[in-house]
Write a structure and sequence with these properties.
single chain; alpha+beta; six-stranded mixed sheet; six-stranded antiparallel sheet; 19 helices; 20% helix
Length: 965
């Protein structure tokens, strides 16, 4: 190092010393400016601008063309960490290559999403890997290792896990609170994050929009108490977009933005994603927080230090030493082959009765029908396709176009006005094949619709439109040349979009029947307008109106339209199906419609339009297979269907991969990463996060699933044998063999589950402990060996606030799914016997209940701690229902004289022992606010060990219960 070279430029020094040196050279204003997502350059020091956040969930997103891999839930369905790691390597390599020519591309990638797929109606189901925390963490760890790279010092990209914590609802996502009891927190929601962070390939996390136990995730003490306790690494916490402002604007958790910004920074948020590229508001809030004494410079330094640590790891200050600086591999043959391999491995064969699949008979004539048969759908976090393969194209390539017939199954319609003219798509001189987002955008939500094409008009003939009903009355309308009707900012309706898409989808409509009220207002007959409809644009809520300048959407003067159906989709499907040897019905979802970010689904049912097509195909030809291409599970009736497959939207090679599986070139070996339930009646409430109490996911669900977790069939068969387990002090070595007993090579996903034989508390029916995807030639046998930490059998003991391995027997179950168990054995590890709750010594944390009825967990203060309150309490305590908390085996020692509760609000509390009557009653006088607590004492006589029941009535918050002996 020369005298002129500052230490932060000295590559011989440890990163920590270099970070400290650079931090010391930055002015306070420069440090504050770095807290925003778009940190400006510091030209006097030669420091470049830096932004956190590059979406890279299954390929580089939003920045134009890139290799598009299967959706994350599809990668989860591969159950293959080695494959997913290679996908991560390819994505991060393309990130580097794209940045070399476009400095808008960032190296701090916001991926993967490790939210557990607890509820299948969650709109963002496509973004997660599994409902199981262990499988999720295994796949996430593999992806982050690929994203990071294997260099000991420098990272190819810096992955940030999304979205911390307990976030599975788009409904009220910025204001809803997830009530998460300690067992669920430690055994379920934290686990996927923890195991991935502890693996060491993560740069940081992003908090979610929601609240957990009444407190916004962006000011959660868990960031310090949990996340940062798992590693010595400086983790970077990046806020979600707009979430810092939500703390005041929608959540009303703080009165001022200065308070909110300071609280988030002190809780551990290091980078504020707010107001797009405009950093001025965040900078102003931080500066005012400093002036008001809400923040200190050291808190700012801590956050900036974490940001700088990531930048040093990314090689920004060592361009010559950075091993990834010259990465240029982009859309390579290897990446294309990997995209196809990933899509092939994600295909799950759900049913195959009678050997309908694979399609190996020479000369088989195939009808491929359905709304997704000629689609290669993208989602909000996809890049722009360079290559594209639909199921139809894949089947053409594999079997030959002369053997494949196609019927999409759309309804062909015309829309007639009251004066006898029809809506018409006018010819355009220059209809370019413009693809949404092809040029890339830092915020694709700001991409505007096309206004260079003429709007719809009316004429005597009109244009026949392809109508698709995606469910819940949401429609798309497509012109004959493939362009979708869309609405731009000027309000005119044009045939201008290549696909539905965008943050607010502008290509969806509703046809609302004209009702009697409107007709009476206009002098019409009572009882409606016959076949008249109003065409409502979903994105704006406005109705189509024919004007002199063309068709536009407006708040008034809607045009009544008569729907004329030229052809029903099921008729076209029936014709194609009747003349085929085998029918493939390709059904599923468009990832931008009815189930996506900002919108949860309302049902598991397949939309009615697609049920019509499936019924028509089955009626015309019993040799019909259903191919579901979707971001989430459906509840379907498998009766009479000889074969069913599922795949997530498989990226650029989806069609080729599907065709190869259908042809038998590849034996399917994907496995379901989440339970497929038989009906909506099997589901808990979307906002019910208590997977234990409401028996959610395969871990606790006691009904009969449509298809269980881990399920997936093969074109061959496998036998399991020789299960053995040797138990040591801290781990068990578990082995068994798997044999391919069929006549073709294939992959098998061997799964190992465990469960306690006689648990003292509710435990999972079975829980995934390990898995391995293996390739076996016909007739081959392999022995699988797993090192199983005994801690994997432990549970969170709320009585003592820690994990405990319970003594007694544990069944180990080996098989092909959670319900297809082939072998079992029992081990009996040494554990820690249960001990009663030492309530006389420590009192009770109310959230540490064993059971509850009608309560929810809320924030004790805005900084830390939990309290418990009745859910939806009546303002009048005398009229409200009684909520109940149950604490098992409480040790009151030689005796107690009184009980003291710390509580806020108003209401009543009653304490009872075992199943007896109330032995203590406390009336709580109103306090001045939810965080103003009072202590109330009453006599309470108990000796020995008893179950304790606490009844709560009224809008109160119970923060602590103490006993005096």
């Amino acid at each position: 190092m020369t005298a002129q070279t500052p230490p932060f430029r000295d590559s011989q020094l440890p990163f920590a010393k270099r970070v400290d040196d650079l931090l010391s050279r930055l002015t306070l204003d420069e440090r504050v400016a770095m807290l925003h997502q778009f940190g400006p350059a510091v030209e006097r020091l030669g420091i470049a601008a830096f932004r956190t956040g590059q979406e890279a969930l299954h390929g580089v997103a939003w920045m134009g063309p890139a290799t598009v891999f299967p959706q994350a839930v599809g990668l989860g369905a591969t159950w293959n960490e080695e494959l997913v790691c290679r996908v991560g390597e390819a994505v991060s390599t393309e990130t580097r290559a794209m940045r070399s020519r476009d400095d808008r591309v960032g190296l701090n990638v916001w991926a993967p999403t490790v939210n557990l797929l607890r509820h299948p109606l969650w709109g963002r189901n496509e973004e997660g890997y599994s409902e199981d925390p262990r499988l999720t963490s295994a796949i996430a760890t593999a992806y982050t290792r690929g994203l990071r790279g294997d260099h000991p010092a420098y990272w190819r990209t810096a992955p940030v896990l999304k979205h911390w914590l307990a976030h599975n609802n788009e409904t009220d996502r910025a204001t809803a609170s997830s009530s998460v009891r300690p067992r669920v927190l430690h055994e379920y929601d934290l686990r996927a994050f923890r195991e991935t962070v502890e693996a060491g390939a993560v740069a940081g996390v992003m908090p979610a929009y929601n609240l957990v136990n009444g407190r916004p995730n962006h000011v959660s003490p868990y960031l310090a108490e949990q996340l940062r306790a798992w590693t010595d690494q400086d983790l970077l916490v990046c806020s979600d977009a707009g979430a810092p402002s939500n703390l005041v604007d929608s959540e009303h958790y703080f009165d001022t933005h200065e308070e909110a910004t300071a609280a988030a920074l002190l809780a551990g948020v290091d980078s504020f994603t707010d107001h797009g590229t405009d950093s001025s508001k965040i900078v102003e809030r931080v500066q005012k927080a400093l002036e008001q004494g809400l923040l200190t410079e050291s808190a700012i330094d801590t956050a900036v230090r974490r940001q700088l640590a990531v930048r040093f790891r990314l090689g920004e200050f060592d361009p010559i030493l950075d091993p990834f600086a010259d990465a240029r591999d982009f859309d390579t043959p290897a990446h294309r082959a990997l995209a196809r391999e990933a899509a092939e491995q994600a295909v799950v064969l759900l049913k195959n009765d009678g050997g309908l699949l694979p399609l190996t008979r020479e000369g088989t004539r195939i009808a491929v029908v359905g709304l997704l048969a000629d689609e290669c759908k993208l989602d909000w976090y996809s890049g722009t396709l360079i290559h594209r393969s639909t199921p139809l194209e894949g089947l053409y390539d594999r079997f030959g176009a002369d053997r494949v017939d196609f019927a999409e199954g759309v309804d062909r319609v015309r829309l007639k006005t009251s004066d006898g003219t029809y809506l018409s798509v006018p010819p355009a001189d220059d209809v370019r094949a413009e693809v949404r987002g092809a040029e890339g955008a830092l915020d694709p939500a700001l991409l505007a619709g096309r206004t260079d094409l003429p709007p719809l008009t009316t004429d005597a003939v009109g244009t026949e439109l392809a109508l698709i009903d995606w469910g819940e009355g949401v429609l798309t309308l497509r012109a004959p040349d493939g362009r979708y009707l869309s609405v731009a900012e000027d309000g005119f309706v044009r045939a201008s979009a290549d696909q539905p898409g965008g943050w607010v989808v502008q290509e969806t409509f509703r046809l609302e029947p004209r009702g009697p009220q409107e007709d009476e207002q206009e002098g019409g007959q009572e009882g409606g307008h016959g076949n008249g409809h109003l065409l409502q644009h979903v994105g704006t809520g406005r109705y189509a109106s024919v004007t002199a300048d063309g068709v536009k959407v407006a708040d008034e003067n809607p045009t009544v339209l008569e729907l004329e159906i030229t052809e029903r989709g099921e008729n076209a499907v029936a014709r194609a199906a009747a003349s085929a040897d085998v029918v493939l019905v390709v059904a599923g979802n468009d990832p931008h419609i009815n189930g996506r970010e900002t919108q949860d689904r309302t049902t598991l049912a397949l939309p009615a339009h697609q049920r019509r097509l499936l019924d028509a195909a089955r009626a015309a030809n019993p040799r019909t297979a259903l191919v579901i291409t979707s971001s989430y599970p459906y509840a379907i009736d498998p009766t009479g269907l000889p074969a069913i497959l599922w795949t997530a939207h498989g990226g650029q090679a989806a069609g080729t991969a599907l065709a190869r599986v259908l042809a038998g070139d590849v034996s399917p070996a994907g496995r379901l990463p989440q339970t497929w339930y038989a009906s909506d009646a099997d589901l808990p409430g979307l906002l019910d996060y208590d997977v234990i109490g409401s028996r959610q996911t395969y871990l606790y669900f006691e009904g009969t699933p449509l298809f269980p977790f881990g399920h997936g069939l093969s074109y061959t068969s496998f036998a399991y044998a020789d299960l053995a387990a040797r138990v040591g002090e801290e781990s068990a070595r578990v082995t068994f063999t798997v044999t391919n007993t069929g006549d073709s090579a294939a992959d098998e996903v061997a799964q190992l589950y465990g469960r306690p034989v006689s648990p003292s508390v509710p435990r999972p029916r079975r829980e995934l402990l390990a898995h391995r995807r293996v390739h076996l030639p016909a007739g081959a046998t392999t022995e699988l060996s797993f090192a199983l930490p005994l801690s994997a059998l432990a549970f969170w003991d709320v009585a003592h606030g820690g994990r405990r391995l319970e003594p007694g027997g544990y069944e180990l179950l080996a098989g092909a799914s959670a319900e297809d168990i082939r072998l079992s054995t029992t081990i009996d590890p040494a554990g820690t016997p249960p001990a009663p709750r030492p309530v006389l010594e420590r009192g009770l944390r109310p959230a540490d209940f064993d059971e509850q009825r009608g309560t929810e967990i809320v924030d004790r203060t805005k900084l830390s701690g939990d309290a418990v309150t009745p859910a939806n309490p009546d303002p009048d305590p005398a009229a409200g229902h009684t909520a109940e908390l149950v604490y098992r085996a409480c040790d009151f020692g030689p005796g107690t004289r009184s009980v003291t509760v710390e509580v806020s609000g108003e209401g009543t509390l009653e304490l009872a022992l075992d199943d007896g009557p109330a032995v203590a009653h406390l009336d709580i006088a109103p306090t001045t606010g939810p965080y103003t607590y009072t202590s109330v004492t009453t006599p309470f006589d108990a000796t020995g060990v008893h179950d304790l029941r606490i009844g709560l009535r009224g809008p109160l918050r119970l923060a602590h219960v103490g006993f005096l002996g």
